[in-house]
């Protein structure tokens, strides 16, 4: 595919949205298996399942933080590259991809050492206790040792999707998930590695995903592959500037996870370890909603970025309508599932009736406002995909800030589990504001860009 005949600027918009969104959504759905499968097997470790599950749950913010590093570069370089392709500046696009690759390598190496050195302080800040330390430390140390592969696979997959190769990115993720599913029971039970085995299986799966996507980007099949280009501080700075919004969004998700665990620890009393374990299960279910939803909006960023660079505002408006409609359908389906099958989902992780009841309650409550995400995600990722990072960041910060306020206000007033209402309150409020803001701002921005 060349920039002259790119379907991003010529194919029917509705068909193009489906062609890019569905593989990206499926890729993220499969990507969820990294955490869900780990937690499923960990929850069934003999005589330690519930404590081990809570220990892995404490590590969730670390996984999110590492993902944020990949997002910083992938969501920074990807939209910039798409815009350059739309302007038919392929030399600029190649420089962006090369410098994105350099940044991914550098950041992953820089993050690994301090995470390992300060692992005890980090984990206890995240809500760990002495009873959970053995399991949290084992998972944390092993997972963090493979940071370079987690960061590279996430960032390069996003750059690949931004070129319109969503199916290729999907295959990379599916390969990793298949390896993870195959190795988990072997490492955890056959080799008796327990929680460490779950993390090691994930690292091996990320190695496979990274190798697959590097082969594609280095093999000449990509529209813009990784080529030898000089280090360009100007491009690096711009990549980080554009990627800062989605990276901050993911990093703040990290803060929110930590805050939830802290409040459950503070107000959960003797049940705090149980509540943290149940929250880990709830977060696994929410990943089934948010990651595929993010796949839809991230996978279609290339349409918006390319046509914004080309000045084709009609196609941008059509794409936004198609993306939002697809998100509404997906979120509606997931809302119904959350309210009806949450108990069955929890039984995958534990057989303890008390844990099943509490985790099911958390899922049903936490997902009450999920339909609001059908507006919030397209607004945030759509603006970011066109390089309009100030608007994307504003829409997202509203939701995150409101969530954080609710996390610290609700438990002192109504008890530890009231923290679960933070999500629906922030989702619904932010959706209303984002919809009004998008309707007001987008037409004005497009009129400026029109050629």
Strand content: under 5%
In N-to-C order, the SSE pattern is HHHHHHHHHHHHHHHHHH
Radius of gyration: 21 Å
Approximate helicity band: over 70%
Number of strands: 0
Describe this structure in words.
This protein is an all-alpha fold and 451 residues long. The protein has helices spanning 13-31, 33-42, 49-86, 90-117, 119-125, 130-145, 147-161, 166-190, 194-218, 233-267, 272-299, 301-310, 313-340, 342-346, 353-366, 373-385, 389-414, 422-449. Helix 2 (33-42) runs parallel beside helix 8 (166-190) and helix 4 runs antiparallel to helix 7 (147-161). The chain starts with 12 loop residues before the first helix and ends with a helix.
Question: Which SSEs are present, and which pair or pack?
Answer:
Layout: H1 13-31, H2 33-42, H3 49-86, H4 90-117, H5 119-125, H6 130-145, H7 147-161, H8 166-190, H9 194-218, H10 233-267, H11 272-299, H12 301-310, H13 313-340, H14 342-346, H15 353-366, H16 373-385, H17 389-414, H18 422-449
Short description:
It comes from Agathobaculum hominis. With 451 residues, the chain is mainly α.
What are the key terms here?
about 0% strand; MATE_MepA-like; about 450 residues; transport; about 80% helix; mainly alpha; MdtK-like; membrane
């Amino acid at each position: 595919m060349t920039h002259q005949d790119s379907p991003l600027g010529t194919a029917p918009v509705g068909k193009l949205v489906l062609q890019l969104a569905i593989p990206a959504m499926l890729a993220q759905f499969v990507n969820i298996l990294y955490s869900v499968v780990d937690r499923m097997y960990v929850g069934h470790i003999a005589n330690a399942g519930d404590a081990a599950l809570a220990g892995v749950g404490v590590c969730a913010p670390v996984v999110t933080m590492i993902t944020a590093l990949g997002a910083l570069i992938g969501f920074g370089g990807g939209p910039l590259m798409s815009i350059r392709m739309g302007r038919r500046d392929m030399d600029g696009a190649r420089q962006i991809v090369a410098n994105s690759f350099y940044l991914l390598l550098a950041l992953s190496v820089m993050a690994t050492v301090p995470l390992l050195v300060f692992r005890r302080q980090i984990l206890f800040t995240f809500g760990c206790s002495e009873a959970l330390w053995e399991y949290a430390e084992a998972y944390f140390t092993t997972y963090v040792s493979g940071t370079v592969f987690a960061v590279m696979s996430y960032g390069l997959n996003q750059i690949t999707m931004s070129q319109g190769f969503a199916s290729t990115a999907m295959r990379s993720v599916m390969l990793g998930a298949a390896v993870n599913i195959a190795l988990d029971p072997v490492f955890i039970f056959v080799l008796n590695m327990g929680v460490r085995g779950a993390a090691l299986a994930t690292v091996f799966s990320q190695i496979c995903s990274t190798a697959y996507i590097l082969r594609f980007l280095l093999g000449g099949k990509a529209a813009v592959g990784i080529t030898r280009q000089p280090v360009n501080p100007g491009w690096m700075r711009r990549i980080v500037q554009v990627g800062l919004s989605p990276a901050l969004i993911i990093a703040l998700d990290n803060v929110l996870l930590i805050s939830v665990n802290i409040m459950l620890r503070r107000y959960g009393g003797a049940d705090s370890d149980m509540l943290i374990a149940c929250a880990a299960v709830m977060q696994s279910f929410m990943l089934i909603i948010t990651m595929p939803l993010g796949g839809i909006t991230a996978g279609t960023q290339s349409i918006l970025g390319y046509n914004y660079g080309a000045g084709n505002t009609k196609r941008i408006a059509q794409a936004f309508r198609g993306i939002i409609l697809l998100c509404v359908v997906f979120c509606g389906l997931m809302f119904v599932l959350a309210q009806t099958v949450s108990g069955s989902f929890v039984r995958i992780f534990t057989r303890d009736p008390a844990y099943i009841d509490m985790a099911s309650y958390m899922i049903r409550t936490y997902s009450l406002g999920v339909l609001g995400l059908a507006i919030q995600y397209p607004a945030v990722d759509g603006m970011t995909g066109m390089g309009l990072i100030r608007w994307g960041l504003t829409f997202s910060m509203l939701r995150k800030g409101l969530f954080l306020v609710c996390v610290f206000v609700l438990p002192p007033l109504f008890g530890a589990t009231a923290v679960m209402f933070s999500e629906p309150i922030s989702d619904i409020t932010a959706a209303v504001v984002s919809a009004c803001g998008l309707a007001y701002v987008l037409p004005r921005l497009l009129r400026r860009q029109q050629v």
